[in-house]
Amino acid sequence: MQKILFGLFAHPDDEAFGPVATLLNEVRAGTELHLVVLTGGENGTNPDNLPNLGETRLQEWRAAGALIGAASMHHFGYVDGTLGNKDHVAITDRFMELVTQTVAGRSDVDIEFMSLDLNGYTGHIDHIVAARSACLAFYRLREQGLPMSRVRLATLPRSIIPALNTGFVYMEPGKTAEQIDETVDGRDLKDDILEIMRQHRTQRGDYDYTVKTQGENLGLNYFVIKN
């Protein structure tokens, strides 16, 4: 049976600063990976004052995806920081179409989705739309008879986000051990993870923050499972 994993994320670095260790493990185990990004991240940090930040970030994303081993990569073209309910519905329909086309005519497949936490990982509304679109598409496709196995929503533990954070948007504390359904240990992939993260040069502040906050635990991924 061929496992097919679709990662639906809001911004071009979400998979790299999120569940990249798990994505690497999956690809190296033979999983066919397809990555989808909703926006170009054009309203992210821009330390080099680039006039075309979104285009540059998409180039960085494609370089990172190549290192991960993605079989295909898709940019849906939404504007960074603007996603809402209507977009959620439209994204779900478009994502379902992509999944259906990708697996058309193929038998003996197992389909899994991955996104960030339903609370937005860091509270970002775009993350929330991506995660809820992944879940909505998952259950609708299952109702249509596709062999859907689960949705893995990457989350952060309380050891990384110990308390409510209001520095950017409303960010809830990290998950307790009881709230985490799966932990993937990819710490042995640290060098590969760092190289993938470094592809996102324009977001080097997030690179520094991720390395600092996760330290020796870089490569530990935590998930809430929907099935």
Describe the structure.
This protein has a seven-stranded mixed β-sheet with strand order 3-2-1-4-5-7-6, with helices on both faces. The longest helix is centred in the middle third of the chain and has 19 residues, at 85-103. The model has no long low-confidence stretch (mean pLDDT 97). The protein has a single domain, classed as LmbE-like (Rossmann fold, 3-Layer(aba) Sandwich). The chain has helices at residues 20-28, 53-68, 85-103, 125-143, 190-198, 204-214; strands at 2-9, 32-39, 72-78, 109-116, 148-155, 182-185, 220-226. Helix 2 runs antiparallel to helix 5 and helix 3 packs across helix 4 (125-143). It contains six helices and seven strands.
Keyphrases for this structure?
Rossmann fold, alpha/beta, 6 helices, 227 residues, 7-stranded mixed β-sheet, 22% strand
How do you describe this structure in short?
The protein has 227 residues and is α/β, with parallel strands linked by helices.
